[in-house]
């Protein structure tokens, strides 16, 4: 860790910590969120296992008035959001909560937290919302006293969130965006990047991006059948697999998630690994 951690106040009782992590570009950090009241605190996500970060946390939390940490809530179990969990639990003795669909990735001490369940912190209450799409058991957390929504990897402050097989589900992702759009959020607090101060606009942007990608897929398949690699070359012409094999693989896995949605809707057919658009279906 090159510089001391500096908490950013999000709202009453809530702070953001940008912790260095091994994550996808353009980001080099994962946000953890501290919620504190009456000397008690809880964290949301811990994507760093850097010993220097973990050593600094006790003093930092004490500076925010936290005398005891009661819980660590996880949006999901991708490593850049949970790699520091075991070390954190060993140091603070906090309970760890995760959606049941992601619980198998953690040791037996992880406890289930389902949709609409709440975690109390003094007079405050944090509500879990099951928001699949990026991962099957992804959770967002609604902080009603602050009108703040902790969205994990459902969206980032800029750019797009990766949704790809085997865990990504485009239809579920769009449904989760719709669900969050119905909340009276004043701020979105993402897993990566800065706070989002226009929630309605940002939610609409990421939804539109996903629909535009879907339209690109349908256009590419309108007049020919394509393998996934050939589809990737049409949709991402600037991405050369010889130079960036890992990015090419991720792009293909994202396209496969779109193709699965379109197949379920009867808009695309697959035969022998080749995909074609169903004619006459919008």
Automatic annotation (TrEMBL):
UniProt cross-references to InterPro entries, sorted A to Z: LACTB2_WH, Metallo-B-lactamas, RibonucZ/Hydroxyglut_hydro, Sec-metab_biosynth-thioest, WH-like_DNA-bd_sf
Judging by the UniProt lineage, the source's domain of life is Bacteria
Entry's SMART domains? Lactamase_B (SM00849)
Ranges where the Metallo-beta-lactamase domain occurs: 29-192
**By its UniProt entry, which Pfam families does this protein fall under?**
Lactamase_B (PF00753), WHD_BLACT (PF17778)
Against PANTHER family, the record matches this protein to:
ENDORIBONUCLEASE LACTB2
* Name listed for the protein in its UniProt record: Beta-lactamase domain protein
């Amino acid at each position: 860790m090159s510089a001391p951690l500096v908490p950013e106040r999000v709202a009453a009782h809530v702070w953001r910590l940008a912790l260095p992590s091994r994550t996808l570009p353009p980001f080099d950090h994962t946000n953890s969120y501290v919620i504190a009241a009456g000397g008690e605190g809880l964290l949301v996500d811990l994507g760093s296992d850097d010993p220097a970060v973990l050593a600094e946390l006790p003093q930092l939390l004490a500076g925010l008035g936290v005398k005891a940490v009661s819980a660590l809530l996880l949006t999901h179990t991708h490593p850049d959001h949970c790699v520091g969990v075991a070390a954190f639990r060993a140091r603070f003795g906090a309970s760890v909560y995760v959606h049941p669909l992601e619980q198998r990735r953690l040791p037996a001490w992880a406890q289930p937290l389902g949709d609409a369940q709440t975690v109390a912190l003094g007079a405050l209450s944090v509500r879990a919302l099951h928001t699949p799409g990026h991962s099957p058991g992804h959770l967002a957390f609604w902080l009603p006293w602050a009108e703040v929504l902790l969205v994990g990897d459902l969206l980032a402050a800029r750019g797009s969130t990766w949704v790809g097989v085997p865990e990504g589900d485009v239809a579920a992702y769009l449904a989760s965006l719709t669900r969050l759009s119905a909340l009276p959020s004043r701020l979105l607090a993402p897993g990566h990047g800065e706070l989002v101060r226009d929630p309605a606009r940002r939610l609409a942007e990421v939804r539109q991006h996903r629909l535009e990608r879907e339209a690109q897929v349908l256009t590419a398949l309108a007049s020919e059948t394509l393998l996934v690699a050939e589809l990737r070359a049409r949709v991402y012409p600037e991405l050369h697999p010889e130079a960036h094999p890992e990015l090419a693989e991720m792009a293909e896995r994202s396209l496969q998630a779109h193709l699965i949605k379109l197949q379920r809707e009867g808009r695309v057919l697959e035969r022998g690994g080749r995909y074609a658009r169903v004619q006459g279906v919008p």
